[in-house]
Amino acid sequence: MAAPRPHWLFGDQLGPHFLDPRHGGPDADAPVVMVEARSVLARRRFHRAKAHLVLSAMRHRAAELGDRVTYVRAGTYADGLAKALGRGSAQELTVRHPTSRAALEFVRARPGVEVLPAGGFLVPHDDFARWAGGGRTLRLEDFYRWVRVRHELLMDGDEPAGGRWNLDHDNREPPPRGRDTLGAPEPWRPAEDDIDAEVRHDLDRWERDGQVSFVGRDGPRLFPATRREALSALRRFVTYRLGDFGRYEDAMLAADPVLSHSLLSAPLNLGLLHPAECVERAEAAYRAGEAPLNSVEGFVRQIAGWREYVWQLYWHFGEDYRHRNALRHRAPLPGWFLDLDADAVTANCLSTVLAQVRDTGWTHHIPRLMVLGSRALQDGWDPAAVTDWFHRCFVDGYDWVMLPNVVGMSQYADGGRMTTKPYTSGGAYIHRMSDLCGPCAYRPTDRTGERACPYTAGYWAFLHRHRDRLAANHRTARAVQGLDRLKDLGELLAERDRRDGDAPP
């Protein structure tokens, strides 16, 4: 009997389901190859906490696999495979479908490689292609309902649990006034070990030697790096934090950036958790009367709806999607943004969120979209550069994650292929959904003057700059009509042009 082919395991395929032959995995007992390629970190300035998390997770997985794995540290993937298999080796190799186009092209260019089906998602590519065929409009709500029915998630027979598919209306409450925190039980946090110490030592040495350069801070590791840790984080969220998740899903509090969010995106995107087990545990909590439907539906929508949707669109839209720039935004990212220099920013909302990214490599979806992304959109920053920034600076950021999220959702650079309107707002939205405006030097209601809110002024300037396009969109036409009622529009635009971002003089 022929020996099983070696299997190359990427650093975001770390859960046991990626090696299970019953679920599209490699040959039973196949030897495993893992490559830690320094070139990945050397090419770009990643967040230090992200580099730490990925390397820690890879090395922990290698320790679990023991003698089954050949773990190679090399300059490049090609060098690593040569060390593991023998330079010039024609040995056959299997690999799970990678999560980026660049990685897929690399493995397909190597002779003797069989690419196995993608793992870690609910919907196979072929099934999505059939669903999307025939000129269908690719809207999230339709896709989400299809996934719910197909996987029998939160369904009572043929109907959605509770009689409604979408409970967003119940999940958009502002934070409770007069409170600095939501008061939710603390999220699960890991205890670092010798592997983390080794990773930190290596990163320090590489940075000291000039081999790599990072942004952000590497405090204690905050996210799971092993399957056991990921399951603990999932259990704690479902048991103690899921109940209040939905209600305040879109809220922001300066002193409580986590609120009741799950913090599961990082272990999910490392492959330590499978989305099915996440949504099934949440539904079980609802069926047992331990969590309200609105919270469970909101969580299921994020995992089985949005996450699956983004993954599929990344492949469906093709590589040209990366270069979309329908609004022709070309401005470079400011230095303070690239360096995560929160202290150089006057607007309290932006400074607070940027500090959260600097310190942890994470914020939840509303600060990402309505503070960071909205600022980039209003100021006309190059969407490709914004995509790269989100990819590098977030612990859960990968090419497949950030390309549709930024180009399509955040920056509207695809002109509406993914969403029906640009997502940006004035300061009133931030004021309503957070406690960030109170101590700010600016006022959310002011469009002009020394206390003019950059988001309020920026919102109207953005509408004016793209008036013709947005007037033809039924979702934004009314807002564009409001431009004609602004008696201070000329002053607003002139003052906006004179401003040098939020950096103080």
TrEMBL record:
InterPro entries: Crypto/Photolyase_FAD-like_sf (IPR036134), PhrB-like (IPR007357), Rossmann-like_a/b/a_fold (IPR014729), UV-DNA_repair_photolyase (IPR052551). Keywords: Lyase. One of its GO terms (molecular function) is lyase activity. The keyword Protease does not apply. Residues 160-193 are annotated as: Disordered. SUPFAM superfamilies: Cryptochrome/photolyase FAD-binding domain (SSF48173). Residues 166-180 have a biased composition (Basic and acidic residues). PANTHER family: SLR1343 PROTEIN. This is Deoxyribodipyrimidine photolyase-related protein. The lineage of its organism: Bacteria, Bacillati, Actinomycetota, Actinomycetes, Kitasatosporales.
